[in-house]
Amino acid sequence: MRFARLFPWLVAAFAVVWGLQRQPDPQAAVEWSQRTFVRLAQQVYPAVVNIDVLQEVPVFPFFADESPVMVQKGVGSGFIIDGDGLIATNHHVVRGKSELTVLFSDGRRLKGVVRASDGVTDVALVKVKGNGFPVLRLADSDRIQPGDWVMAVGSPLGLRKTVTAGIISATGREFSEAERMNYLQTDAAINPGNSGGPLIDLDGEVVGMNTFIAQGAQGIGFAIPSNMVRHIVSQLKTMGVVERPWLGVKVAKLTPDLARRLRGTPGRGVVVFEVVTQSPVAR
User: Fold this and answer.
1) Measuring CA to CA, which residue among 192, 161, 186 is closest to residue 44?
2) Long-range contacts of 246-254 (CB under 8 A, 24+ apart)
3) What are 82-126's pLDDT values in tens digits?
C-alpha cells in the first residue's frame, strides 16, 4: 500500500526530471543560428551582385531639350538566375540608365545591359557576358508563412555584401486595388541599395526580391514573392515584354449614391463609364 501511495509521486518526479532534460539549451540555439546564417551568407554571396548605375539627366527638366546635363550615380542589387550571366533586379534600379556596371563578390566588374524590364511589377533582367556563373534558385513563395526566418543580402547605401536577418512579418500585402500586387513583408533591415537583392530562406533559396521600405518606419520592408518573379522573368526572357489581358473599358466603383441613381445594388459590381476605341470590347 505504501508503494501504491508513493507511485504517483515517483511518476511526477520522473516527468519533471525528463522535462528538465528536454528543455532547449539557449546557448546551443544561439550557436545554431550563428552557424546557419554564416553558412547561408557564404553560400549565396557568389550569386549576389552590386549594380552601379550612371544616368545623364537635364539640369533644368522643364527645358530638357536645351538644358545642360549632369550625371547621376545610383546603386542597387541583383542576383544571378542563369549561368550565362542573366541577373534579376528591380525595374526602378535600371530604368532609363545609360550605363550599368555589375560588381561581383570576387571583385570582377562587368558591363551590364538591360535585356528586358517591366515597370508594372518592378522586375528587370540585366545581362553580362560570360558563362559558368553561380546561380540562386527561386523557391515556392506560396509556402512561406509569417514567422519564417529569412535573410536579406545586397548593397545598401553601396555597402557591398551586407547581410541582415529577420522573419516574414506578413504575406499577401496589397497597397492599391489598381496595382494588383502582393508583397512579402519582412523585418529584416532593407535600405536604399538593397533594391533588387534576394530575400533568402534557410534553404538558401530566393523567396522574394527586396523592393522597397515603408517611409518613416523601421523594420518594415517589402519583397516581390519569388513566384511572381519567376512568372515575370519567364515572359521577359521569351518575349521581352509581359503580356497582360485587357478588356478596354474604364470602370468606377458602384457607390451607394450611384447605385440608387442607377437603380442598382450598393456594393455589387462596377459602373462602366467608357469603352476604349479599338479595344477588344469595342470590337
Assistant:
1) 161
2) 246/279, 246/280, 247/279, 247/280, 247/281, 248/275, 248/276, 248/278, 248/279, 248/280, 248/281, 248/282, 249/274, 249/275, 249/276, 249/279, 249/281, 250/274, 250/275, 250/276
3) 999 999 999 999 987 778 999 999 899 999 999 999 998 999 999
Q: How far is CA 260 from CA 105, 254, 269, in A?
A: 63, 10, 13
For residues 42 and 28, is the Cβ–Cβ distance under 8 A?
Answer: no
Q: Which three cell numbers stand for residue 75?
A: 546603386
- Closest residue by Cα to residue 56 from 22, 28, 98: 98
Distance, C-alpha 10 to centroid of its chain: 55
For the chain, domain boundaries:
44-127, 141-239, 245-283
How far is Cα 276 from Cα 115, in angstroms, rounded to an integer?
31
Fold for the domain defined by 141-239: Thrombin, subunit H (2.40.10)
One-letter amino acid of 186: T
The whole-number pLDDT of residue 31 equals 62
What is the total residue count of the chain? 283
Angle at alpha carbon of residue 236, lines to 138 and 73, rounded to 5°: 85
Q: Does domain 44-127 have CATH number 2.40.240.20?
A: no
Common-topology check for domains 44-127 and 141-239: yes
Burial of 176 (0-12, 13-18, 19+ CB in 10 A): exposed
Residue 267, SS3? coil
Residues marked as catalytic: 92, 122, 195
Distance CA 137, CA 123 (A): 16
Can you give the pTM of this predicted structure?
A: 0.74
